[in-house]
Amino acid sequence: MSDGTERAALGYEHTLMFGQYREDLGEYAKLEALRVKSLEKLRKKEEKRRQKELKPYRNAIHRK
């Protein structure tokens, strides 16, 4: 194989590898966004539940 052909083959291989990397990175980003969104939703739900459980503050005038 000549040096030019070998270089062209390597360039093509790098292009394929980069394309695969981009696809994998895109898929990872989608999954990570879904995970973060679901965690945020769960956090908000827990915060609402916690706020419901807390008794409202009553100052001395209202306690009697």
List keywords for this structure.
64 residues; mainly alpha; 2 helices
Tell me about this structure:
The structure is a single chain. The chain is 86% helix and 0% strand. With 64 residues, it is mainly alpha-helical. It is rod-shaped and about 95 Å long. The model has no long low-confidence stretch (mean pLDDT 86). This is Chloride channel protein 2.
General form: rod-shaped
Radius of gyration based on Cα positions: 28 Å
The share of residues in helices is over 70%
Class per helix and strand makeup:
mainly alpha
Percent of residues in beta strands: under 5%
- Uncertain parts: none
DSSP summary, beta strand count: 0
Summarize the helix and strand pattern as letters: HH
| Mean pLDDT metric | 86
| Helical segment count | 2
Q: Distance between the terminal alpha carbons, to the nearest Å?
A: 96 Å
Biggest sheet overview: none
